[in-house]
Amino acid sequence: MDDINRQIINTLQGNFPISDRPYLEVAQKLGITEDNLLQRLECLLKNKILTRFGPMYDIQKLGGSFSLCAIQVPPERFEEITRIVNAFPEVAHNYERDHEFNMWFVLATESAEQITQINQAIEEKTGLKVYNMPKLQEFFVGLHFQA
Amino acid sequence: MDELDRQIITATQSGLPLVKEPYAVIARDLGIDTETVKLRLQTMLDNNQIRRIGAVPNHYKLGYKANAMSVWNVPDDKIGELGKLLGALPFVSHCYERPRFLPEWPYNLFAMLHGKSREEVSEKVAQIVDLLGEHCAGYELLYSKQILKKTGLRLKEKD
């Protein structure tokens, strides 16, 4: 990765302008042409160094609901439970973690009631307890990764 | 969120068009004018409904291969103060208070830690232990073993 790409990653993790020619504004600050910036972004996305370029929405502030949930899955049932949990479209992410609480998933729904309903449905289908751990307070979100 | 915001969100949630006038392209696709798109986005940004606009790096590709969810048991009456301290550390990407489930889950403060190696993450954990001092009644690190699903957040398009 060259210095310009590094600079793009380090300076463009926020504050992208809402203007008629936003890429031009950014390119001028970086001392490159607008076309060059567009090509570089395309390339960074294609190589999956960036997963996305655009607005990051907060679904909770838009009236939806989010929760982190955990299950202690017996190891011999891990595959079966993964299949059941992942089949719910409201499950946005699901991670296996190194712990007795070995399954951690995020529910994203358009209403708060749905979080409870889906967790009840998962409990019925799996026979396992779902620990619902919604955030009570947010202290920080948004690491700046240094390239 | 009204219908127009919803349309703008569905048009941009997977990314902005990589063209010279991205907001004009979105406006044309939705059959509205560019000023409206810009105004709606600016309003959502001012209301924190948009956290930020920009690049979302893949931290694995940048070499951050050790990613741990660190969970801490701290006194409830101190959590506001301690949460802010942890959240201000440069290597913490998310920091939240979450409910305990006693006795099996005593942890109420969650901080995601990222490092280029587990050794680097351990050093960071040591810094947090120092920072929390006597207020830390226990902690654990939950490293991710496997991504089982990652579709992210998607609003459904309404017909």
Backbone shape of chain A: elongated
Q: Predict the CATH topology of the largest domain in chain B.
A: Alpha-Beta Plaits
* Beginning-to-end CA distance, first to last residue of chain A: 9 Å
CATH architecture field of the largest domain in chain A: 2-Layer Sandwich
In one word, what is the shape of chain B? elongated
The CATH homology group name of the largest domain in chain B: Lrp/AsnC effector binding domain/regulation of amino acid metabolism (RAM) domain
Approximate strand percentage of chain A = 25-35%
Provide mean pLDDT of chain B, rounded: 92
State the name of the first-level CATH class of the largest domain in chain A: Alpha Beta
Number of domains of chain B: 2
List keywords for this structure.
heterodimer; A: 147 residues; alpha+beta; Alpha-Beta Plaits; 2 domains; 4-stranded antiparallel β-sheet; 6 strands; 25% strand; B: 159 residues; Arc Repressor Mutant, subunit A; 5 helices
Structure description:
The complex is a heterodimer of chains A (147) and B (159). Chain A has 2 domains: 3-46, no CATH class; 65-133, Alpha-Beta Plaits (2-Layer Sandwich). Helices cover 37% and strands 25% of the residues of chain A. Chain A contains 5 helices and 6 strands, in the order αααββαββαββ. Chain A has helices at residues 3-11, 22-30, 34-46, 78-86, 112-126; strands at 50-57, 65-71, 91-97, 103-109, 131-133, 137-141. In chain A, a hairpin with a 5-residue loop joins β3 and β4 (103-109). The model of chain A has no long low-confidence stretch (mean pLDDT 93). Chain B has 159 residues and is α+β, with helices and mostly antiparallel strands. Chain B folds into 2 domains: 3-46, Orthogonal Bundle (Arc Repressor Mutant, subunit A); 66-143, Lrp/AsnC effector binding domain/regulation of amino acid metabolism (RAM) domain (Alpha-Beta Plaits, 2-Layer Sandwich). In chain B, 35% of the residues lie in helices and 25% in strands. Chain B has helices spanning 3-12, 22-30, 34-46, 79-87, 118-132; strands spanning 50-57, 66-72, 92-97, 109-115, 139-150. The interface between A and B is large, with 75 and 75 residues.
